[in-house]
Structure formats: structure tokens, C-alpha cells
Amino acid sequence: MKKYLILILTILSMSCSEQPVEKLPKGVIPMDKMTAIMVDIQLIEAGIVVRKYNRTQRKNQITDYYLALYHKHDISKETFDLSLQYYTDHPGQLEEIYESMMEKLSELEAKVENEKVDTSAVE
User: Fold this and answer.
1) How far apart are CA 5 and CA 42, in angstroms?
2) Are 45 and 5 in contact (CB under 8 A)?
3) CA-based, 20 to 30 A from 114: which of 37, 55, 78, 84?
């Protein structure tokens, strides 16, 4: 999945112009749901890095996490891959997903920081 993130960042950095929004083909995940999925992917990847699993553990753990992700969002790996390919081919829309994802991650980070402050004030 790390390759997906690198691919997304590369496409975003190369996109120069806005493309008109077009109707999504059948089977492509809508942008809001794709944003939620990408947020979860970032959290999965961060968790894997923080835990510093060895290669074998990491591969097994990542597989389990992604299976849970697909189940949580009621999608298949194929649907995700199809959607990611579609958005990769439409960098303007991918950029919107990325920006929304970053906003949501920032909100989550702020929430966690606030909870840390609240917890330390009680102690």
C-alpha cells in the first residue's frame, strides 16, 4: 500500500490543471467515501511504522489491516484498485480527495491532542 501513497503523492505533485468533474463510472467509489478510505489507509500505514514490525510480521499485519479496511467500508480490493486507478487518471479529483484527507487527519490529530491535554489535567 505504500506504493499507492507514493503514486498518489507523485500524481498530485505533477498535476497542473483542473479537470472538469465528470460522472463516475460504475464501480468507482465516490469521492467522500474514497476520502474516508484514504484516511484509514494513512492510519494503518502509520500504525505499522510505529509498531516497527519485522518484514514477515509487517506483511501479515498489513494484509489483516487491509482486509479489515475493505470489510469496514464494504468494498473489495478490486473496487478499491479500480477507484484508485480512476482517481489517478483524474488528478484534479485525486487532489480534492487528498486535501480532504489531510483536513480530516488534522482534525483527528487535534482531537487526540485535546484528549491528551484533558487527560493530563485530570492527573
Assistant:
1) 8
2) yes
3) 37
Sequence-distant (6+) residues with CB within 8 A of 117 are: none
The Cα–Cα gap between 114 and 23 comes to 40
Predicted confidence (pLDDT) at residue 75 exceeds the cutoff of 70: yes
The set of cell numbers assigned to 80 is 478499491
For residues 34 and 87, the answer to whether their CB atoms sit within 8 Å is yes
For the residues 16-21, what does the mean pLDDT come to?
50
Residue 99 pLDDT grade (very low, low, confident, very high; cuts 50, 70, 90): very high
Measure the N-to-C terminal CA separation of the chain; round to a whole number of Å. 39
Q: How far is CA 56 from the centre of its chain?
A: 23
Residues 6+ apart with CB under 8 A from 4: 41, 84
Alpha helices in the chain (DSSP H): 2-14, 31-51, 55-72, 77-89, 91-122
Q: What are phi and psi of 34, to 5 degrees?
A: -65, -35
Write down how long the chain is. Answer: 123
